[in-house]
Design goal:
rod-shaped; 0% strand; mainly alpha
Length: 98
């Protein structure tokens, strides 16, 4: 039951295989770091674009608010102009009948 263990690989071969695996792992880590840097750059770019969109949205909200305020002034202006035109028309009608 206590049979001796026999190693069939040379130490040089085992070390070379370990070195190959470490090289592969190092390449994978480097690829992950490059990918992470790319994603970080893209997220930063998206952040800047989002800030620009939010700024433009704020500007549009203010513009719409200003337009709504202007709209509330349009009705009285239209009524005033219509009243002035009707008054002028009524004043001209009696003069033309004389």
């Amino acid at each position: 039951m206590n049979d001796p263990v026999t190693i069939t690989y040379s130490l040089e071969e085992v070390l070379r295989r370990m070195e190959d695996k470490l090289d592969t792992l190092q390449k994978d880590v480097t690829d992950l770091k490059v990918g992470q840097a790319t994603l970080t750059e893209k997220v930063s770019s998206m952040d800047k674009r989002l800030e620009k969109v939010e700024s433009e949205q704020d500007t549009m909200v203010k513009a719409i608010s200003d337009l709504q305020g202007f709209r509330s002034l349009v009705v009285p202006i239209v009524v005033a102009v219509a009243t002035a035109l009707l008054t002028l028309l009524f004043r001209l009608v009696p003069n033309s009948l004389q």
